Amino acid sequence: MADSASPRVGGGGAAGAKAGPGSGAPLAAIAASLQRERRRTGLSLAEVARRAGIAKSTLSQLESGAGNPSVETLWALSVTLDVPFAQLVDPPRPQVRLVRAGEGMAFAAERADYVATLLASCPPNARRDLFLLSAQPGSSRDSDPHMPGVVEHVVLCAGRALVGVVEDPIELHPGDYVVYPGDVAHVFRALVPDTSAVLVQEHR
Fold it and tell me: How far, rounded to the nearest angstrom, does the alpha carbon of residue 32 sit from its chain's CA centroid?
Protein backbone atom coordinates (compact mmCIF):
# COMPACT_ATOMS: atom_id res chain seq x y z
CA MET A 1 0.00 0.00 0.00
CA ALA A 2 1.09 3.62 -0.50
CA ASP A 3 3.20 4.98 2.35
CA SER A 4 1.28 7.76 4.10
CA ALA A 5 4.56 9.51 4.91
CA SER A 6 5.80 9.65 1.31
CA PRO A 7 6.12 12.96 -0.56
CA ARG A 8 2.88 14.39 -1.92
CA VAL A 9 2.06 16.12 -5.16
CA GLY A 10 2.30 19.88 -4.86
CA GLY A 11 4.77 22.74 -4.81
CA GLY A 12 8.47 22.33 -4.16
CA GLY A 13 8.16 21.83 -0.41
CA ALA A 14 9.93 19.34 1.82
CA ALA A 15 9.21 15.64 1.73
CA GLY A 16 5.90 14.94 3.36
CA ALA A 17 4.33 18.20 2.23
CA LYS A 18 0.65 17.86 1.54
CA ALA A 19 -1.16 18.67 -1.68
CA GLY A 20 -4.17 20.86 -1.37
CA PRO A 21 -5.84 24.08 -2.45
CA GLY A 22 -3.26 26.53 -3.74
CA SER A 23 -0.44 23.94 -3.73
CA GLY A 24 -0.47 23.53 -7.51
CA ALA A 25 -1.53 19.89 -7.37
CA PRO A 26 -3.47 19.20 -10.61
CA LEU A 27 -6.06 17.00 -8.92
CA ALA A 28 -8.79 17.58 -11.53
CA ALA A 29 -6.39 16.76 -14.37
CA ILE A 30 -5.18 13.66 -12.54
CA ALA A 31 -8.76 12.51 -11.93
CA ALA A 32 -9.67 12.89 -15.61
CA SER A 33 -6.48 11.13 -16.71
CA LEU A 34 -7.00 8.21 -14.37
CA GLN A 35 -10.58 7.71 -15.52
CA ARG A 36 -9.62 7.97 -19.19
CA GLU A 37 -6.62 5.63 -18.97
CA ARG A 38 -8.43 3.05 -16.86
CA ARG A 39 -11.27 2.94 -19.42
CA ARG A 40 -8.67 2.53 -22.15
CA THR A 41 -7.20 -0.54 -20.42
CA GLY A 42 -10.62 -2.02 -19.62
CA LEU A 43 -9.52 -2.73 -16.05
CA SER A 44 -11.79 -2.36 -13.05
CA LEU A 45 -11.10 0.06 -10.22
CA ALA A 46 -10.25 -2.85 -7.92
CA GLU A 47 -7.86 -4.46 -10.42
CA VAL A 48 -5.93 -1.25 -11.10
CA ALA A 49 -5.63 -0.63 -7.35
CA ARG A 50 -4.43 -4.21 -6.79
CA ARG A 51 -1.78 -4.04 -9.52
CA ALA A 52 -0.57 -0.63 -8.34
CA GLY A 53 -0.42 -1.78 -4.71
CA ILE A 54 -2.76 0.89 -3.39
CA ALA A 55 -6.10 0.78 -1.61
CA LYS A 56 -9.21 0.71 -3.81
CA SER A 57 -10.63 3.59 -1.74
CA THR A 58 -7.52 5.66 -2.53
CA LEU A 59 -7.95 5.18 -6.26
CA SER A 60 -11.67 5.93 -6.00
CA GLN A 61 -10.85 9.21 -4.23
CA LEU A 62 -8.29 10.15 -6.87
CA GLU A 63 -10.72 9.46 -9.71
CA SER A 64 -13.25 11.74 -8.02
CA GLY A 65 -10.72 14.57 -7.80
CA ALA A 66 -10.13 14.22 -4.08
CA GLY A 67 -7.41 12.56 -2.04
CA ASN A 68 -3.80 13.53 -1.49
CA PRO A 69 -1.65 11.44 -3.86
CA SER A 70 2.01 10.79 -3.21
CA VAL A 71 4.53 10.77 -6.03
CA GLU A 72 5.01 7.03 -5.42
CA THR A 73 1.27 6.39 -5.78
CA LEU A 74 1.12 8.28 -9.07
CA TRP A 75 4.21 6.54 -10.41
CA ALA A 76 2.71 3.15 -9.53
CA LEU A 77 -0.51 4.07 -11.32
CA SER A 78 1.33 5.33 -14.39
CA VAL A 79 3.23 2.04 -14.61
CA THR A 80 0.08 -0.01 -14.08
CA LEU A 81 -1.84 1.95 -16.73
CA ASP A 82 1.18 2.04 -19.09
CA VAL A 83 1.05 5.81 -19.52
CA PRO A 84 3.91 8.31 -19.05
CA PHE A 85 3.92 9.97 -15.63
CA ALA A 86 3.87 13.48 -17.14
CA GLN A 87 0.85 12.64 -19.29
CA LEU A 88 -0.97 11.30 -16.25
CA VAL A 89 -0.55 14.49 -14.20
CA ASP A 90 -0.64 17.00 -17.07
CA PRO A 91 -2.42 15.47 -20.08
CA PRO A 92 -2.04 17.11 -23.51
CA ARG A 93 -4.96 19.38 -24.29
CA PRO A 94 -6.53 19.67 -27.73
CA GLN A 95 -5.90 23.12 -29.17
CA VAL A 96 -8.30 25.25 -31.16
CA ARG A 97 -7.30 25.29 -34.84
CA LEU A 98 -9.05 27.29 -37.54
CA VAL A 99 -8.99 26.75 -41.32
CA ARG A 100 -10.72 29.49 -43.30
CA ALA A 101 -12.45 28.81 -46.62
CA GLY A 102 -9.84 28.58 -49.36
CA GLU A 103 -7.12 27.45 -46.95
CA GLY A 104 -5.93 23.92 -46.32
CA MET A 105 -4.15 21.31 -48.45
CA ALA A 106 -6.18 20.93 -51.68
CA PHE A 107 -6.07 18.13 -54.28
CA ALA A 108 -7.71 18.60 -57.70
CA ALA A 109 -9.08 15.85 -59.92
CA GLU A 110 -7.70 15.47 -63.46
CA ARG A 111 -10.96 14.92 -65.32
CA ALA A 112 -13.56 16.64 -63.16
CA ASP A 113 -14.21 20.01 -61.56
CA TYR A 114 -13.57 18.53 -58.14
CA VAL A 115 -11.25 19.58 -55.31
CA ALA A 116 -10.73 17.69 -52.06
CA THR A 117 -9.30 19.77 -49.21
CA LEU A 118 -7.79 17.94 -46.25
CA LEU A 119 -8.95 19.72 -43.10
CA ALA A 120 -7.81 17.22 -40.45
CA SER A 121 -6.48 13.70 -40.51
CA CYS A 122 -7.77 11.09 -38.07
CA PRO A 123 -5.25 10.25 -35.33
CA PRO A 124 -4.56 6.59 -34.46
CA ASN A 125 -7.08 4.76 -32.26
CA ALA A 126 -9.74 7.45 -32.65
CA ARG A 127 -13.46 7.13 -33.44
CA ARG A 128 -15.47 9.81 -35.18
CA ASP A 129 -19.22 10.42 -35.35
CA LEU A 130 -20.65 12.64 -38.12
CA PHE A 131 -23.57 15.07 -37.68
CA LEU A 132 -25.39 17.56 -39.92
CA LEU A 133 -26.42 20.64 -37.92
CA SER A 134 -29.27 23.00 -38.78
CA ALA A 135 -29.80 26.08 -36.64
CA GLN A 136 -31.72 29.37 -36.54
CA PRO A 137 -30.83 32.62 -34.72
CA GLY A 138 -32.08 32.99 -31.17
CA SER A 139 -31.09 30.68 -28.36
CA SER A 140 -27.60 29.24 -28.74
CA ARG A 141 -26.76 25.55 -28.36
CA ASP A 142 -24.72 25.51 -25.16
CA SER A 143 -23.08 22.14 -24.51
CA ASP A 144 -21.68 20.92 -21.22
CA PRO A 145 -18.27 19.23 -21.36
CA HIS A 146 -18.33 15.76 -22.89
CA MET A 147 -16.20 12.87 -21.66
CA PRO A 148 -12.43 13.49 -21.44
CA GLY A 149 -10.63 13.36 -24.78
CA VAL A 150 -13.57 14.33 -27.01
CA VAL A 151 -12.64 16.75 -29.82
CA GLU A 152 -15.16 18.44 -32.11
CA HIS A 153 -14.58 19.48 -35.73
CA VAL A 154 -17.03 21.87 -37.43
CA VAL A 155 -17.27 22.91 -41.09
CA LEU A 156 -19.84 25.65 -41.73
CA CYS A 157 -21.92 24.91 -44.82
CA ALA A 158 -24.30 27.90 -44.95
CA GLY A 159 -25.04 31.04 -42.93
CA ARG A 160 -22.88 32.38 -40.12
CA ALA A 161 -22.31 31.10 -36.60
CA LEU A 162 -20.28 31.55 -33.43
CA VAL A 163 -18.66 28.20 -32.68
CA GLY A 164 -16.15 26.85 -30.17
CA VAL A 165 -15.27 27.08 -26.50
CA VAL A 166 -17.67 29.24 -24.49
CA GLU A 167 -15.00 31.71 -23.39
CA ASP A 168 -13.84 32.50 -26.93
CA PRO A 169 -16.13 31.31 -29.76
CA ILE A 170 -15.08 32.00 -33.34
CA GLU A 171 -17.31 33.46 -36.05
CA LEU A 172 -17.48 31.06 -38.98
CA HIS A 173 -18.53 31.73 -42.57
CA PRO A 174 -19.39 29.12 -45.23
CA GLY A 175 -16.41 26.87 -45.88
CA ASP A 176 -14.63 27.72 -42.61
CA TYR A 177 -13.39 24.88 -40.41
CA VAL A 178 -12.57 24.91 -36.70
CA VAL A 179 -11.51 22.22 -34.22
CA TYR A 180 -11.81 22.66 -30.45
CA PRO A 181 -11.86 20.51 -27.30
CA GLY A 182 -15.28 19.01 -26.64
CA ASP A 183 -14.44 18.15 -23.03
CA VAL A 184 -14.90 21.80 -22.02
CA ALA A 185 -18.07 23.89 -22.24
CA HIS A 186 -18.72 24.87 -25.88
CA VAL A 187 -21.31 26.64 -28.00
CA PHE A 188 -22.94 26.77 -31.45
CA ARG A 189 -24.89 30.00 -32.04
CA ALA A 190 -26.49 30.72 -35.43
CA LEU A 191 -26.19 34.36 -36.45
CA VAL A 192 -28.42 34.25 -39.55
CA PRO A 193 -31.42 32.11 -40.60
CA ASP A 194 -30.92 28.64 -42.04
CA THR A 195 -27.39 28.16 -40.79
CA SER A 196 -26.05 24.66 -41.32
CA ALA A 197 -22.82 22.86 -40.56
CA VAL A 198 -21.18 19.46 -40.46
CA LEU A 199 -20.01 18.36 -37.01
CA VAL A 200 -17.51 15.54 -36.57
CA GLN A 201 -17.19 14.37 -32.97
CA GLU A 202 -13.92 12.56 -32.34
CA HIS A 203 -13.47 10.17 -29.42
CA ARG A 204 -9.85 9.52 -28.47
Answer: 9
Cα 116 to Cα 127: distance, rounded to the nearest angstrom? 22
Q: What gap in Å lies between CA 199 and CA 204, rounded to an integer?
A: 16
Enumerate residues 6+ apart whose C-beta is below 8 A from 182: 143, 145, 146, 150, 151, 152, 201, 202
Q: Is 1 exposed, middle or buried (0-12, 13-18, 19+ CB in 10 A)?
A: exposed
Indicate if the alpha-carbon torsion angle 57, 63, 66, 72 is positive or negative.
positive
Confidence of residue 91 (pLDDT cuts 50, 70, 90): low
Query: 1-21, pLDDT tens digit by residue?
Result: 444 333 444 433 333 333 443
Say if residues 183 and 105 touch (Cβ distance below 8 Å): no
Looking at the DSSP bridge assignments, the partners of residue 200 are 130, 153
- For 117-158, the pLDDT digits (tens) are 778 777 777 788 888 888 988 878 888 888 888 899 999 999
Please, what is the average pLDDT of the chain?
A: 80
* H/E run at residue 38: helix 27-41
Alpha-carbon distance 76 to 79, whole Å?
5
Check if the beta carbon of residue 161 is closer than 8 Å to that of residue 135: yes
